[in-house]
Write a structure and sequence with these properties.
alpha/beta; five-stranded mixed β-barrel; binds iron/sulfur cluster; six-stranded parallel sheet; 13 helices; about 450 residues; binds 5'-deoxyadenosine
């Protein structure tokens, strides 16, 4: 009896930032188009892949641990693949260092992946820079109300701690027409919220004629889209017209994620960030003038080479002064090839951890204080899903992109609901529907 060849399936585990999660969805779409299936678990997969972030060593270690732990459990003949910027970072060397890996395919090279998986040669690697880093195939997930859309790839800023310029290559802005086509297609499939992604979205168009603010306006006009957000921004590229978008475009979440990294000008210089704390404070002041209730979040690195107690105190005082709505704090991790890897990684791990904890504790109080300011206010909340924590409640996002839990007898994900906030903790605004869907 002649049987059909079973469809070969790939399982992808993702570590890292939104960009990596987005890439994984795009890779799945590409694989399906080429006749592969998507496995729900590693055990049933013919290809077990990790899409691994290279920004900090911790993510890379977890990715490798995942692959090595699945080696003995895998289906007979299944092959292990390393995808993403960690693959770009190490290239073929990874095949020698971790012999359990069979296929290495870096970000920007995914168009070649189906062919690589079809190749029976056991070890293959493709991790160079590519002409076309964008995968245009639409993602396959249906029923989602929210989607990421990449607008730029790569970065040439060379912040001294950062591996991205080495792994993701030169800045490349995606064609506006391709971006609109993707957003329109997503809107047609019921997506209501778009998150525009890039290592530094504000450099969108630097390599072409397009402008980021035009992009925002045009996406704002696409029917069906209710909410838009973008990340990440760099303080050296924040023109006034971008800040004005927070006032002029009502669908845009009033939320700016603006990594500060350090409050010490000495360290900002060593980090090659190209702004001073004073310039950063000016941007925050202007943003709050334009949109007084804007949510501002940031990234900080503790224990960068040579960070003294005084440098750290400058960061603490900047954090207290600015009062971010939320803060992502990272312990410095030395990355190969970066300028900082040539500096002495001289802050002991324990001290990095202590500084990290000090900032976390300070931020807890500030976040609570900032969230409490919303008590008594009414906003149009973007409804995400029924709350898993509280019966009769829904989870959503405020106009400033804060997480909200609100009571309503019924409500629909992907709609806007007028909610009055009456209580806050460090993570959530709590409230009740004012009517609308709650009739
Ligand atoms: N070590 C620690 N944190 C880092 N980041 C980037 N590179 C490193 C590194 N080598 C942080 C920065 C950046 C965020 C995405 O990750 O704060 O804004
Ligand atoms: Fe890395 Fe700096 Fe580029 Fe951000 S702007 S990706 S931190 S080099």
């Amino acid at each position: 009896m002649e049987g059909k060849t079973p469809v070969r399936k790939i399982y992808i585990k993702t570590y890292g930032c939104q960009m990596n999660f987005y890439d994984s969805e795009k890779i799945k779409a590409l694989m399906v188009k080429k006749g592969y299936g998507i496995a729900d678990s590693p055990g049933e997969a013919d290809f077990i892949a990790v899409n691994a972030c290279s920004v900090r060593k911790h993510a890379e270690d977890r990715a490798m641990a995942f692959l090595s732990s699945h080696m003995p459990l895998r289906k007979k003949g299944a092959r292990l693949c390393l995808l993403g910027c960690t693959a770009n970072l190490y290239g073929e060397d990874i095949l020698k260092k971790h012999p359990f890996i069979d296929i290495v395919c870096g970000a920007g090279n995914y168009e070649r992946l189906p062919e690589m998986l079809g190749n029976t040669k056991r070890k293959t690697c493709s991790a160079g820079e590519s002409e076309n880093p964008f995968i245009e195939d639409p993602v396959i997930a249906c029923g989602d109300i929210s989607a990421f859309v990449t607008v730029t790839k790569g970065c040439e800023n060379y912040c001294s701690y950062c591996v991205v310029p080495f792994t993701r290559g030169k800045l490349a802005s995606r064609k506006p027409s391709d971006i609109y086509a993707e957003v329109r297609s997503l809107a047609g499939r019921g997506v209501k919220e778009i998150v525009l992604l890039g290592q530094n979205v504000n450099e969108y168009g630097k390599d072409s004629e397009a402008r980021f603010t035009d992009l925002l306006e045009k996406i704002h006009n696409i029917e069906g889209i209710l909410r838009i957000w973008f990340l990440t921004s760099h303080p050296k590229d924040i023109p006034d017209e971008l800040l004005l978008s927070f006032k002029n475009l009502p669908k845009l979440y009033r939320h700016l994620h603006l990594p500060l990294q350090s409050g010490s000008d000495r360290l900002l210089l060593l980090m090659n960030r190209r702004y001073t704390l004073a310039r950063y404070l000016e941007i925050i002041k202007r943003a709050r003038e334009i949109a007084p209730d804007i949510t501002i979040t940031s990234d900080i690195i503790t224990g960068f080479p040579s960070e003294t107690e005084k440098d750290f105190e400058d960061t603490v005082s900047a954090v207290k002064k600015i009062e971010f709505d939320d803060l992502f704090i990272f312990k410095y991790s030395e990355r190969p090839g970066t300028a900082a890897s040539g500096m002495q990684n001289d802050v002991p791990q324990k001290e990095k951890e202590r500084r990290h904890k000090v900032l976390l504790d300070i931020q807890e109080d500030i976040s609570l204080k900032r969230n409490t300011l919303f008590n008594g206010r009414t906003e149009n909340v973007f409804v995400v899903k029924p709350s898993t924590k509280k019966n009769g409640c829904f989870m959503g996002r405020s106009e400033g992109n804060k997480s909200v839990i609100f009571r309503a007898s019924h409500s629909a994900p992907g709609t806007l609901e007028s909610v009055v906030f009456n209580y806050a903790d460090r993570r959530y605004l709590f409230g009740a529907s004012c009517g609308g869907n709650d009739k």
